[in-house]
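sry for the spam today, last one i promise. struct tokens for design, 276 residues
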């Protein structure tokens, strides 16, 4: 690019930023100092706007009464143009995106969002989870697992078949972690594999999953795509992410013969990276 063209572009960008900054100041709520995100933005007779959640009887700027049915479509249109800060700004997130995109970031990508550990159920900031997995007493942790190599996990239970502590494993040379979960939903034990990759889900993985008893007289298997770490069990089931096994049938077929444990079974997993 020629120097004059670059200068022109820089100048144009500066002017644009200047206008957007000005607009952002104009529409920033004077109560919470954030750019309003609600679908309707209340306005007073003198044109001051606040977000819907901060709205009071009186305008916080000029003290005139704010009518219940007065909203500003113009302010709404302006807020659609602006990049708004992530709600985890105070925790250290510097991401700014358009209103439409920021919610997805906050829910599914922000490294400061809180995620529960599948084992102990305590919530942690997403980026601290791997470190927690290594120390959590409720998860079985394994590092440097390879792709397309069968990994076997053993489950033994003393009493009836209920949710099992998840096995956590980290793919070698990557930031990808996987959690083999088994949760009870109604009369079924649902097996599924959650995928966690630190921040946004850049890569997708699929798997072959096989459950079987000692004599292999009972086997259930499926191939599927890993469940996003944020997904609830009910949605995972609906989305076809889970291998559902009838608990009664399982209890009948997975009784341990040596009597040391009441029930036991093995889980075999093959992981594949899915082209995205
Ligand atoms: Zn506000
Ligand atoms: Zn006002
Ligand atoms: Zn964020
Ligand atoms: Zn934990």
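last one done:
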């Amino acid at each position: 690019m020629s120097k004059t063209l670059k200068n022109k572009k820089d100048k144009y960008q500066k002017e644009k930023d200047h206008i957007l900054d000005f607009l952002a100041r104009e529409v920033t709520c004077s109560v919470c100092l954030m750019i309003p995100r609600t679908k309707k933005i209340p306005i007073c007779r003198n044109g001051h706007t606040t977000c819907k959640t901060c709205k009071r009887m009186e305008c916080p700027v000029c003290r005139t009464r704010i009518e219940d049915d007065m909203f500003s479509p113009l302010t709404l249109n302006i807020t659609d143009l602006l990049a708004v800060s992530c709600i985890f700004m105070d925790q250290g997130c510097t991401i700014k995106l358009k209103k439409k995109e920021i919610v997805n970031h906050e829910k599914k990508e922000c490294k400061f969002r809180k995620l529960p550990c599948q084992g102990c159920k305590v919530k942690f900031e997403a980026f601290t989870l791997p470190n927690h997995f290594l120390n959590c007493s409720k998860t079985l942790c394994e590092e440097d697992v390879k792709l397309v190599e069968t990994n076997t996990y053993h489950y033994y239970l003393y009493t009836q078949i209920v949710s099992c502590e998840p096995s956590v494993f980290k793919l070698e040379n990557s930031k990808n972690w996987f959690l083999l979960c088994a949760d009870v939903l109604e009369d079924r034990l649902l097996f599924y594999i959650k995928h966690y990759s630190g921040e946004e889900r850049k890569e997708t993985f699929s798997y072959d999953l096989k459950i079987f008893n000692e004599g292999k007289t009972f086997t259930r298997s499926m191939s599927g795509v890993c469940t996003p770490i944020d997904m609830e069990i009910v949605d995972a089931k609906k989305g076809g992410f889970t291998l559902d096994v009838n608990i009664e049938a399982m209890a009948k077929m997975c009784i341990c013969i040596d009597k040391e444990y009441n029930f036991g079974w093995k889980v075999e997993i093959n992981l594949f990276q899915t082209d995205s």
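The chain has six helices and 14 strands. ok im logging off now
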